[in-house]
Amino acid sequence: MRTTVLKTIAAISISAAFGAASISDHFFPQRPAGATLTTITGVLENWTHGEGVGTIAVKDSSGNTHKFYMGYPARINGKTVLCFSAPGADGDAPSPDPYCTDWPSKVVIGTTKVKAVTWGATLNGSAVQACDEIDMI
Question: In this prediction, what percent of the chain has a pLDDT beyond 90?
């Protein structure tokens, strides 16, 4: 409960500081036209954002965890999801989370198998992968 309250305070502070219209300035933009896309399948291990950056992590069938910078807007099954932290992320109880009302109820951190669509990007001169879409499989 304490973690959820702290996340909520952080989310409100971030929203107040940046304003809803400028949140996208702090994430990777929509994927570039013509970007080479890669698909990673596995179990969704993490979905968190705040403090100007977001992370999506997927563990593949070989046990390798792939971490991606979150694109904005980020979607699950085609629906934009603005939750700062998925229910169950960071050790929180998987549900209910009154501060994350747009999270799909069938998507469970550490359990749900997903397909992540990623592309190559650059952050501070380093090559990274960005992701703005995951779908249940």
Answer: 34
Angle 17-57-100 from CA coordinates, rounded to 5°: 50
- Report the domain count for the chain: 1
Output 96-102 pairs: Cβ under 8 A, ≥24 positions apart.
Answer: 97/4, 99/4, 99/7, 99/8, 99/11
In this structure, the number of other CB atoms found within 10 A of the CB of residue 49 comes to 24
Is the alpha carbon torsion for 90, 108, 116, 53 positive or negative?
A: negative
39 phi and psi angles, rounded to 5 deg: -115, 130
Q: Which residue has the higher pLDDT, 35 or 21?
A: 35
Domain of residue 121: give its range: 2-136
Would you say 78 and 66 are in contact if contact means Cβ atoms under 8 Å apart? no
What CATH number did the domain enclosing 38 receive? 2.40.50
For residue 92, the 8-state DSSP code is -
Q: Is pLDDT above 90 for 93? A: no
Confidence band of 91 (pLDDT split at 50, 70, 90): low
